[in-house]
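Dear support,

I submitted the protein below through the web form. The confirmation email said the job was done, but the results page showed an empty box. After a refresh the structure appeared. I'm attaching both so you can tell me whether what I see now is the final result or a partial one.
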Amino acid sequence: MNFENIKLGVAPINWTNDDMPELGGENTFEQCVSEMALAGFTGCEVGNKFPRDTNVLKKALGLRGLQICNQWNSYELTTKSFAENRENFTKLLDFLEIMGAKVIGGGETGNSCQGQMDVPVFEGKGMLNTREDWDSFTYGLDELGKIARDRGMKLAFHHHMGTCIQTMEETDRLLNETNPDYVFLNYDCGHFHFAGEDPVAALNKYIGRTAHIHLKDVRPNVLQRVHDERLSFLAAVKNGVFTVPGDPEGCIDFPSLFEIIKKSDYAGWIVLEAEQDPAKANPLEYAMIARNFFRGLTGI
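What the results page shows now:
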């Protein structure tokens, strides 16, 4: 299998959770990046414990053979002015540009329940209710995506549980109503499965518009609990709804996903992003499980 245009990265959320700092609060930045490198990854995304001084960060990553490939951006186009969104977006672009990244990620958090511990994720998700809501939202994404493109980067929007872009129907509309030169997708198989979609069909449909890929698996028994007990997204994570590719407790068809990637023109990063409670799932151990699984499927 030929994956010469693919690089493998990992997200620090496996070590320290930005949304729930109590998960992995004991894990330091140095431990995180050292174990990323030890597990065999060459790139990473940015977490809340990463130093913001780019010289300090570059040195720490360079010692370990790592590079920054992306960072989450919290779009708030549904609740804040475009000027505020542009200011925050541009600041993050400045940082990522210095760090050599080519992608800026993130999803719409303005009207989302993803960060609320007590709101059932399947009942309190963000919505775009009117034509005007959609027009304002997609206009903002196009404008920000153009800013990114003009600086040699891509806006890769992340569909996410609890947000207004969660299902394939919503993703279709997002992509159909934004400029394909400005707005791309950050595909995530775990979030599509969580939303009740077929992640293989989704990747096959969206691979041509995908600029960044997150891979995680889902534990079906925990997902059923999320439905039965009306759990929030954060409670689902704490209870282990996600795990890494290669974990036998997962259920996603990764060989089919990699076959789609192999046959496509996709060039960029595949990132392990499987947030769990580090006290229950040792981050290095699970990162190595995923890394070995990826190697078996891709040869890299």
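Response: this is the final, complete result; the empty box was a page-load delay. The chain has one domain: 6-298.
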